[in-house]
Amino acid sequence: MKRFALAAVLLVAACGTGEASSGDEVPVVIGYQSKTINTVTAGTLLRDRGFFEQRLTELGKKTGKTYQVAWQDYDTGAPITAQMIAGKIDIGSMGDYPLLINGSRTQKQGDQGTRMVAVTGYNARGALNMVVVPPGSSAKTLADLNGQKVSASVGSAGHGTLVRALGGTKVTVENQQPSVGVSALQSGNVAALAQFVAWPGQLVFAKQAKLLYDGAALNLPTLHGTAVRNPFAQQQPEVLREFLRAQLDATKFLHEKPLEAAEIVAKATGLPVEVVYLYNGPNGIATFDLSLKSVLRNALKEDVPFLKSIGNIDELDVDKFIDDKPLSDVQQSTEDLTNPASLGGDPKTASEVWFEGSAPEPVASPTALLKLVNGGKKLRVAYVPDAETGTRWFAEHAYWVRSGAEFLPFTTEAAAAKRGAVLTFQQALSQAGR
């Protein structure tokens, strides 16, 4: 694999990208973000399973050409956009705000610019973006951050969620990359961190932070997707088509084998598998579907004014930027927002428990989960849906409220407090009995 990758890189350096190739060798350069686990079906998981290379091998039997794939991994979408503008990356995956910036910065190139051709993963309410604070913080709402510093990557969806949710609260936003922001949070240089998947979940799972604000409270969709350089799409349409088919292969694999998929991504990224499974598992925070749904298109349009207001884009015709023709050759798009990776039962209550030494198992409700955990088996991790937003969250780090014989979990203390006396996980376990 290393020799193959090196050969691909050298070929790209010598020949440029697909449309600039000559003879029977066609290089294809893919830009992705391995740790942005909402893009794994167009990045980490896709690369590991080799679906794209397999499909290109079959395509080569028909065309007589050899396709060489080079994968380039980045921490954020910005460098992918820069490389696409320079004509050095053919296909890239990134979040909604970076996608819009990508489209805006290439729109002046006309047909030489970029197009969004598919979605990787999304959350219809916006739960992929969250705000966390140190475990010992006294803050219970965003209003408690008034006058303090908050770390965010300016221009990212996490930053957008923060700005929209603050209302009249005034904070100083420190423009930092996620890893820098984590260090600032831990050192006390900032009071909170506003970031995108999977940073909030990772920090909370490691008990290095607690959730202050769940982006789902905004009820505004957030998504990640796939973009292509239009010249490449026009000159190598069959390659783009096979990429989207391979992305669909990876999506089906994730739906059919969610735990194995999470283990693959965890190994490649260094993220705890429990965190990856929170987002990418059944009923996960992320829903994986390539469809360019109207609700997601509209969400992108609603994001444009914010990006203009902070000077990150000039203008963008979202309808022109989105090109659904390549995807229509691969699958029939759907407007259905149901997560194909389902635990079964009622999605409003369906939970999941993972005991040491066994596989995760579905449980009908959070209350049933508490009783099961009280059975004495050693708990590895458990997941429950927020009683209002449906956001899947760690049971141990949820805030619980008793309602008669039932126990309701919430992602934030503020949300739980509106429903009654707030219980910790241990208190809920104690009251639930067996």
Question: Which features would summarize this protein structure in a list?
Answer:
Solute-binding_3/MltF_N; D-Maltodextrin-Binding Protein, domain 2; signal; 18 helices; globular; ABC transporter substrate-binding protein; alpha+beta; 5-stranded mixed β-sheet; 39% helix
Percent of residues in helices: 25-40%
**Estimated structural class:** alpha+beta
Strand portion: 15-25%
Q: How many distinct helices?
A: 18
* CATH class membership of the largest domain: Alpha Beta
Question: What's the CATH superfamily of the largest domain, by name?
Answer: Periplasmic binding protein-like II
Morphology: globular
Overall number of domains: 3
Q: How many DSSP E strands?
A: 18
Q: Biggest sheet: strands side by side, in what order?
A: 2-1-3-10-4-11
Per the CATH scheme, the topology name of the largest domain is D-Maltodextrin-Binding Protein, domain 2
Instruction: Give unreliable regions as ranges.
Output: 1-16
Query: How would a crystallographer describe the biggest sheet?
Result: 6 strands, mixed
Radius of gyration: 22 Å
**Average residue-wise pLDDT:** 92
Amino-to-carboxy terminus distance: 52 Å
Give me the CATH architecture of the largest domain, please.
3-Layer(aba) Sandwich
